[in-house]
Design goal:
With 314 residues, the chain is mainly α. 81% of the residues lie in helices and 0% in strands. Helix 10 crosses helix 11.
């Protein structure tokens, strides 16, 4: 039950990210994706760091900078570049392929076994997402594709390295999230100024949208995401990623009146089913690992008892 609750809470992060397009298109200034990235990350990071009342120490200054760059600072601009140069459906499919990168990196850096069922679940989920978001008019752009792939690799590497490095003793996920969001936001600032110029004037709708993006879509969502990485395997967490484009499709239907065809509905069912199957496979792997550890611990205890008994008999 504890694992189910952790998975459910972690899933709220990609579900929240699925609302990004709706909020950006309906409330935020147009053509300011990098400024939006700064407004999402930096205020939320400073707020969470202040609430945690903990600053990095020693090596965690540069580790936080690396993680913040991978998860936020590089990921946001590359994601926006991909979204601008590609149809939304193509960009979403590239993002949905992110779990495949994490499976490979987790096997290489964390020793997490890349099981065939997990890989299959990731592939099927990406296929289901493609059924939801791709259209016959979708055109490809090389720069957009490269940006989309690199953004997925960046987020995947950030997820794996967050799991690999863990957290300093006595530091919770709130502080870790704050450090990374602050570092990521600072990385985006010079890029935003160079590409987009001075910040735009903000009206009431923009302030409302940025407030939601900062608090819910980024602060709470990334806290749940990094909290999940600390308690679940990197593969299990990233397999929740396809929930983001699925949520975006549902919001488009419910709030914007966008129609959903039978093919799209089938794709949603396939992607959601693959996501659930991936979590079940990850749960079995985690259970087997726990049993293996328990067995090894019991053997070690028995050997220790035998040695102690031998010393007593002597």
């Amino acid at each position: 039950m504890k694992r189910i609750a952790t998975v459910a809470l972690t899933a709220l992060a990609p579900i929240s990210w699925g609302s990004t397009y709706f909020v950006a298109s309906e409330l935020l200034p147009p053509d300011r994706p990098l400024f939006t990235g700064v407004m999402r990350a930096l205020p939320a990071g400073l707020l969470l760091t202040a609430l945690a009342r903990t600053l990095p120490k020693g090596e965690w200054w540069w580790k936080s900078a690396v993680l913040g760059t991978l998860n936020i600072g590089a990921f946001f601009p590359l994601l926006f570049l991909s979204a601008y140069r590609l149809p939304g459906g193509v960009a979403a499919v590239l993002g949905a392929a992110g779990p495949l990168f994490v499976v490979g990196l987790a096997a290489l850096l964390l020793g997490e076994r890349a099981r065939a069922r997990t890989v299959l679940a990731a592939v099927v989920a990406a296929f289901g997402v493609s059924m939801v978001v791709l259209t016959a008019e979708a055109k490809l752009d090389l720069i957009g594709i490269i940006a989309g792939v690199v953004s997925s690799v960046s987020m995947g590497a950030g997820t794996v390295m967050t799991k690999r490095w863990g957290r300093p003793d006595g530091v919770g996920p709130l502080a870790m999230t704050g450090w990374q969001l602050t570092a990521g936001g600072l990385v985006i600032i010079p890029v935003a100024l160079l590409v987009e110029g001075a910040p735009p004037a903000l009206d009431g709708n923009a302030l409302l949208g940025y407030g939601y993006m900062m608090l819910i879509n980024t602060g709470i969502a990334y806290w749940l995401w990094f909290r999940g990485i600390g308690q679940l395997s990197a593969t299990s967490v990233t397999l929740l990623g396809p929930l983001s484009p699925l949520t975006a499709a549902v919001i488009g239907w419910a709030a914007l009146g966008q129609a959903l065809t039978p093919v799209q509905l089938a794709g949603m069912a396939i992607a959601f089913g693959a996501t659930v199957a991936g979590q079940l496979s990850a749960a079995k792997t985690a259970h087997a690992a726990e049993e293996s550890f328990s067995s090894a611990e019991q053997i070690h205890r028995n050997i220790s008892m035998d040695l102690t008994d031998g010393q007593v008999r002597r």
